[in-house]
TrEMBL record:
Protein name: HTH-type transcriptional regulator LysM
MF GO annotations: sequence-specific DNA binding
Record-annotated HTH asnC-type domain positions: 2-65
SMART domains tied to this protein: HTH_ASNC
Keywords: DNA-binding, Transcription, Transcription regulation
SUPFAM superfamilies: Winged helix' DNA-binding domain
Keyword DNA-binding tagged: yes
Alphabetical list of InterPro entries matching this protein: ArsR-like_HTH, AsnC-type_HTH_dom, HTH-Siroheme_Decarb, TRASH_HVO_1752, Tscrpt_reg_AsnC-like, WH-like_DNA-bd_sf, WH_DNA-bd_sf
Gene3D superfamilies from the UniProt entry: Winged helix-like DNA-binding domain superfamily/Winged helix DNA-binding domain
Domain of life, per lineage: Archaea
Pfam family, one: HTH_AsnC-type
Length: 196
C-alpha cells in the first residue's frame, strides 16, 4: 500500500521532477535505490503518468496564447477532451461537470475556431468563447491533506488495507478484496479464451 513517504516523494518530484533520488532519499530517510523502487511503484499504480517539461512559452514565439471555452452538446464532453488532448499547440484540456471543455493553447493561426475544428466535429459544439491570454502560471502541487485513494478495477470501491494488487498482461491492477481479484481474473480469462 502507499503511504506518507510516497506522498512526500510526490511533493518533492512536483517541485522538481529532475531532483536526484539521492537528494530525495536524504529528505525522506531512504536510500536512492529505495526511492527508485517507490517511484517505479507509483508509476505502476498510474499515480505518476509521465515526467514532463514546463516551458516558458512566452520566450518561444509559438502561436497565440488563448483560453478557449467550448459549450458542447450533451454527451460530447469526453470525446472532445480526448480529441484535443495531445493536439499540437494544446497545453491543458479541462472538462467541466456543466458540459464545457476549457482549453489552454497556443493557437498556430488567428482563426482559432477553424484550427479547433480540425480535431472537433463542429456539430458537437454549441458555442466557442476565445480569450487572449496575457500570461499563465501553472503549478502542480500536492496539498497537505492529500491521501491516496485507489479504486478497485472491478467494483470501484476504495482499496483499503485488505486490498490486493496483481499484474495481468503486464498491467498492475488493484482490487479491494481477494473475491474481486478472483472474479476479475475469471472474467478476463473467459474473454481472452473467447477472443482466441
Amino acid at each position: 500500500m502507499l503511504d506518507e513517504i510516497d506522498l512526500r516523494i510526490l511533493r518533492l518530484l512536483t517541485e522538481d521532477a529532475r531532483r536526484p533520488y539521492s537528494e530525495i532519499g536524504e529528505r525522506v530517510d531512504l536510500s536512492p535505490p529505495a526511492v527508485s523502487d517507490r517511484v517505479s511503484k507509483l508509476q505502476d499504480h498510474g499515480i505518476i503518468r509521465r515526467f514532463t517539461l514546463d516551458l516558458d512559452r512566452s520566450q518561444l514565439r509559438e502561436g497565440t496564447p488563448v483560453l478557449v471555452t467550448l459549450s458542447v452538446v450533451p454527451g460530447a464532453t469526453d470525446g472532445i477532451r480526448d480529441a484535443l488532448s495531445g493536439f499540437d499547440g494544446v497545453e491543458h484540456v479541462f472538462a467541466t461537470a456543466g458540459g464545457r471543455v476549457v482549453v489552454n493553447a497556443h493557437a498556430p493561426r488567428p482563426d482559432v475556431q477553424s484550427w479547433l475544428f480540425e480535431r472537433v466535429d463542429p456539430e458537437t459544439v454549441r458555442e466557442i468563447e476565445v480569450d487572449l491570454l496575457t500570461g499563465t502560471d501553472w503549478t502542480a502541487r500536492i496539498g497537505g491533506e492529500a491521501a491516496f485513494s485507489l479504486s478497485c478495477v472491478l467494483c470501484d470501491n476504495e482499496v483499503g488495507p485488505d486490498g490486493v494488487s496483481r499484474r495481468i498482461d503486464g498491467d498492475l491492477k488493484q482490487f479491494c478484496c481477494p473475491s474481486c481479484e478472483q472474479l476479475y481474473v475469471e472474467q478476463y480469462e473467459e474473454l481472452a479464451s473467447d477472443a482466441d
